[in-house]
Amino acid sequence: MDYRSSDPPGLETYAGPRSEDVLPASATAAVKVVIVGGFGVGKTTLVGSVSEIRPLTTEETMTQAGVGVDDIAGIEHKTETTVAMDFGRISINEQLVLYLFGTPGQERFWFLWNGLFEGALGAVVLLDTRRMDVSYDVIGRLEEKGVPFVVGVNRFPQAPRYPMEKLRAAMDLDDSVPMVDCDARDRASCRDTLLTLMRYLYTLTTASTEHQ
Questions:
Q1: Residue 97 and which of 6, 48, 105, 120 are 20 to 30 A apart at CA?
Q2: What is the mean pLDDT of residues 17-23?
Q3: Element (H, E) at 190
């Protein structure tokens, strides 16, 4: 987007970011959070739904290059995919701001994850109950990197519904890892999922301090 004024050539000035994109003056803390999950589980939708600024997306039209490489079973209608990241921002309260980074879901783009995870305090894993297998490796990578996470069960229409305890067992999740229902299309639901992550991170921090 061009923010230049209509000054004569050579004397252009730049207006800077839009007023709605400016960080609130009351903000005293910012936290980086990553939104992860398999291909097509709703990461871009979540970031777009909850972000208070216009989200940055890197969605590209799917091409023949992905045929035979990307597993689109169950999401054959999908026509676009994230090739780098999604970015958004949400103020949890007047002091705390979350920067959201959505990761690409296709395994061939996972090499970008290391940079996106750098400095992240936690993650939200989106789970699609129609294709739970696409999240196994995602959770394994988070555990390997030691990144705390919560699981948001994205309730797609017509997707099978299972009790949380059955989903936890199927994903082999520790009892301490929070699991919550989430609708990636609904801002309030997405915000509640992020608040669950913040509460979980606070619990981990408090427990760590008590053991010192």
A1: 105
A2: 56
A3: helix 187-210
